[in-house]
Write a structure and sequence with these properties.
Strand content: over 45%
Number of strands: 21
Oligomer: single chain
Distance between the termini: 19 Å
Largest sheet: 4 strands, antiparallel
Number of helices: 2
Amino acid sequence: MELRQTAQGVAANEALFEQALEQPVDVEFTLPDYCPDIARVLKCRVTPWVSSRSVEGSTMSIEGRASIALIYADTEGNLCSYAYESPFARTVDLGGAPEGGCSVHVQVGTAYMNCRPVTPRKLDVHGALTLKCRVVSRRLSDILTDLDSPDMQLLRGSAPATTPMAAAEKYMIVEEELELEEDKSSIRSLLRADARALSSECKIISNKAVVKGELLVEVLYCPEEGGRPEKLETSIPLSQIVDIEGVNESCDCEAALEVASLEVKPRTGVTGEARSVSLSAKVCVTVQAFCNADLPVIFDAYSTRFETTVEKKEIAFEKLICSVNESFLCKKTLEFSEGELSGVADVWCDSQVTSVRSEEQGLLIDGTVLICILGYGADGSPAYFERPVDFSYRHNMEEAPTCMRCEPQVEAVAAACTLSAGGKAEARVELHITAAVFNVTKVPLVTGVEVREDAPKQREEDLALLIYFAEAGERIWDIARRYNTSADEISMVNELDCEALPDKRMLLIPCV
């Protein structure tokens, strides 16, 4: 029997590769002549950057660098610093080339890091980075949406889905000169420089996405006149247009900004004083576009006259149910020995997500913030302290996911620490949380039907009705298929308006 079949292509994201890789960092470097000798290492901080990620054939390539910032005290008790860049490259065999286009997502962090002075001018750094990699392909699957035959019975329905339309990324260069305030002393040397990129808005216009955000910059420096370090903070607005073919104003989008490289240097003016810093940052703008639509689908099919072979494929539908882009304040009282911390020069934080889950209609994100304090001990000498602090964030959702996919990003954008009596300090950390929450539903759908005309079904030609005693919970569709009749006819004859029977009952089964 020739069936006129109507098919439709359905796009779904498929994870081709998902794994956490360890990237070793083993370097030895010597301080340049302009740096004083090392008396005490206070902190050897490693900031990893990913500058490029791509897939060629069946190989994924990742390139980046580990920026090693050494903060130490010299023989006179002064704070000093030196930055060393260690590039890295990693290739991974994916086991096969993606059929269509794909996107590569990499989250990089520091697994562990040890720093050992070999001499007063040479250091040995040994550790490892963690590269959490995910390669996602947008794959099309053909499913049936209609069959033109009076003998075919179709279990129709709809699949609420967020169809992935496209993904794109673009790098932008940010270059600025940051001036000190008039009452600030000029710069002798830099101790720390950080930048975090946050997205605030993403709008779709025809074949383009307009992304807006900001670059938060912190620079800690030693003043020329001596004394304690001072901080330069600023926010640089970001705006970028990203080309995405095939999207329009009816689509939704999620944007993420990631700093891929950062370079900050003191800038000396005509007076010979350094009263500004030059900043050059490379920011990766990633955009994913979605279309929210209910797709007409067929869950099952059979012929009332002939044996039928039905082909099915399980498709994972993802529906975007919630987007998070907000700040969260984490407060904690830190304990120190009496007189252990006499002053605070600088505070920064590194955050890490430990678990993501949903409870009732709430998104729960748990994690740890490592609070790093550069301060002074009881004798006034430079000192460094670390305190891990756990945080728990909750966001209420209108819809509770049955199976959730969420990969949140948590950035510590601001931190402060105030000393109090009894060897305590009050720490306040502002965390910026971005997350897209998807409800994942795996549904087996009909992709093909073959009716075997050489295998007719047995029919009771002389019967118009059968009596069937049904159990509670039985589906009308299953009963109709068993007796080669129509589920709509059973519902009409028995005056039913449900898909499954709420209790035991006798049914009249019409023979068609």
